[in-house]
Amino acid sequence: MAPLDDATGPHLLEGELVCPRCGNDVFEAVTDGTETHLLCHRCWTCWHVELGYMAPVPVLTCPGCPHKEECLRRRATSEQGEASPNRRSVSEHTS
User: Fold this and answer.
1) Angstrom distance (rounded) from CA 40 to CA 28
2) Residue 33 confidence (pLDDT) above 80
3) Would you call 92 exposed, middle or buried from its count of C-beta atoms within 10 A (0-12, 13-18, 19+)?
4) CA 31 to each of CA 34, 70, 81: distance values in angstroms, whole numbers, following the listed order
5) Domain residue spans in the chain?
6) What average pLDDT does the segment 60-71 reach?
7) What is the mean pLDDT of residues 17-25?
8) What is the pLDDT of residue 84?
9) Helix (H, G, I), strand (E, B) or coil at 2
10) Predicted TM-score of the model (pTM)
């Protein structure tokens, strides 16, 4: 996934959704050229949002993403002793 950058910097989404893994509400929009995902920089989970659900994107499916190595490193550290996140409804995390 590559960041969606323009002249003003990365595209950030703040306050609209909540990360199911860590509760953070700031995401960076990233893309692989065909799909857009939301990257949480707190837990380094990339989320695919579709049809009212947020599902984690496997890090190994992100060829060419400049965040890939950092995601792998941080996820490996944070997942020690944690269960993998489940697919969750967006409505479960919004008021």
Assistant:
1) 7
2) no
3) exposed
4) 7, 16, 30
5) 2-93
6) 82
7) 91
8) 47
9) strand
10) 0.66
